[in-house]
Amino acid sequence: MASSSTSQLRELQRELENKANDLNKLQKDIGKNHQVRKKYTIQLGENELVLKELDLLSEDANVFKLIGPVLVKQDLAEANANVKKRIEYISAELKRLEGTLQDMEGKQNSKKESIIKLQQKIQALQAGKAKA
């Protein structure tokens, strides 16, 4: 009987270790998601600022775009369209990342709950073993 509970305890501890590793990996992924979202949020702010600046210009103003080490003259309407498309893209990416984050946080919560239940099982098994 003692060896049965010992092997059961070892199995539960191995399962607990696996779940803890999964939770750790998930938390790292959540951290990466936050970093990427932060980067996109900064880019969104920069592009919105550029759009405001472009709106202040007159139709005949010279607009230049930096391509590598060279400034290339660009049409104001084209520059406006490019910046708006970039803002659209960044906004869509932020929405996608937000959805992914919510999904990962849900998985994280369920993993935490299963780890707590597993720890309770182990404690109960150890308490039963201590009584015997």
Automatic annotation (TrEMBL):
InterPro entries: PFD_beta-like (IPR002777), Prefoldin (IPR009053). Keywords: Chaperone, Coiled coil. The keyword Iron does not apply. Gene3D superfamilies: 1.10.287.370. GO terms for molecular function: protein-folding chaperone binding; unfolded protein binding. Residues 2-29, 80-114 form a coiled coil. GO terms for biological process: chaperone-mediated protein complex assembly; protein folding; response to cold. It holds the Pfam family Prefoldin_2. GO terms for cellular component: cytoplasm; prefoldin complex. It comes from the Eukaryota. Belongs to the prefoldin subunit beta family. PANTHER family: PREFOLDIN SUBUNIT 6. This is Prefoldin subunit 6. It comes from Aquilegia coerulea.
